[in-house]
Write a structure and sequence with these properties.
Blueprint: H1 5-23, H2 37-55, H3 61-79, H4 90-109
Helix pairs in contact: 1-2, 2-3, 2-4, 3-4
Length: 121
């Protein structure tokens, strides 16, 4: 648990940033706006998934996929609230879920050393 604590803090901090951007009535203009918001959805959930996978190592990929996808669906439900002046689009949730699945698959296929491992002397 102590080894994953810094990663969990980063996960929560980035999650707070994603929620702010997703639920702000007027989010700031970003350089990639011309590509559409699906790029932002996929990038945000890809990074969140990396932090989730590294922070919760004991959790299965399927559980991470389920929880992260549910979080993406909840964002879309909240965006449907008239007070937020945002648009709810089920395709955003699909983009989130695809990004989560592809990121988990990539992390499984790409061998990597444990960043929290203590080097042997």
């Amino acid at each position: 648990m102590l080894k994953e604590f810094p990663l969990r803090v980063m996960f929560l901090a980035f999650w707070a940033f994603v929620l702010f951007m997703a639920l702000s009535p007027k989010p700031p203009t970003l350089p990639l706006d011309w590509m559409g918001d699906k790029v932002y959805h996929m990038a945000a959930f890809a990074v969140l998934t990396v932090f989730a996978r590294l922070s919760f190592r004991q959790m299965s990929d399927l559980r991470i996929l389920e929880r992260m996808s549910f979080a993406g669906a909840l964002i879309e439900v909240f965006q449907a609230l008239p007070a937020l002046h945002r648009d709810c689009d089920w395709r955003d949730w699909v983009a989130d879920t695809i990004a989560i699945a592809v990121t988990l698959l990539a992390m499984r296929l790409i061998p990597r050393p444990d960043p929290m491992a203590v080097p042997a002397e």
